[in-house]
């Protein structure tokens, strides 16, 4: 499965006949199943000459992903991951919403637990070795937390029309710390 979200589309964009243009912000979200196990990853980048504001948005989303992954350690809490992501979004003034975010990954794409993009450190499920989660920050440049769903019933767009960025990795909690399973 591949979703392509352009500019104000934050998540779940259905590929269509739109031709990418210079300056577009594109998020590509890929999921795959191999030998009964599932992985999920996303990346955001610009087409051609980037707008500086898009570069900052993407870099903040990537930094939040890195911070969330760093917090995914045995004995930690799910809220530690969520708090790390949310803190970066809020400090940069970006909007985020917790209706959609990371999730457990295993034999199916979306399993328990839910991994929100904002939370309280020290709270939630204790992270144990063997747990596999998708950590999935998505931010909206407008600073508002609202979004809308397209008529296709699937594509999420920022509520104010601002640009959005989305990044994601599937991460295993191991005795040696977090292990990114979807690294290139």
Brief write-up:
The chain is an alpha+beta fold and 184 residues long. The chain contains two helices and 13 strands, in the order ββββααβββββββββ. It has one domain (2-180): Creatinase/methionine aminopeptidase superfamily (Creatine Amidinohydrolase, Alpha-Beta Complex), CATH 3.90.230.10.
Protein described:
The chain has helices at 52-70, 78-92; strands spanning 2-6, 9-11, 25-34, 37-46, 102-104, 111-115, 132-135, 138-140, 147-149, 156-158, 164-166, 169-174, 177-180. The strands form four sheets. The protein has a five-stranded antiparallel beta sheet. It has a three-stranded antiparallel beta sheet with strand order 1-3-4. The chain has one domain (2-180): Alpha-Beta Complex (Creatine Amidinohydrolase), CATH 3.90.230.10. The protein is built from two helices and 13 strands, in the order ββββααβββββββββ. The chain is globular. The chain is an alpha+beta fold and 184 residues long.
- The structural domain count equals 1
Mind telling me the CATH class?
A: Alpha Beta
The CATH architecture: Alpha-Beta Complex
Major beta-sheet overview: 5 strands, antiparallel
How much of the sequence lies in strands comes to: 25-35%
What coarse outline follows from CA principal-axis ratios?
A: globular
The string of secondary-structure elements, in order, is EEEEHHEEEEEEEEE
Determine the structural class based on helices, strands and strand pairing: alpha+beta
CATH-assigned fold name: Creatine Amidinohydrolase
Residue stretches low in confidence (pLDDT < 50, at least 5 long) are: none
Gap between N and C termini: 18 Å
Helix content: 10-25%
- What Rg do the Cα atoms give? 16 Å
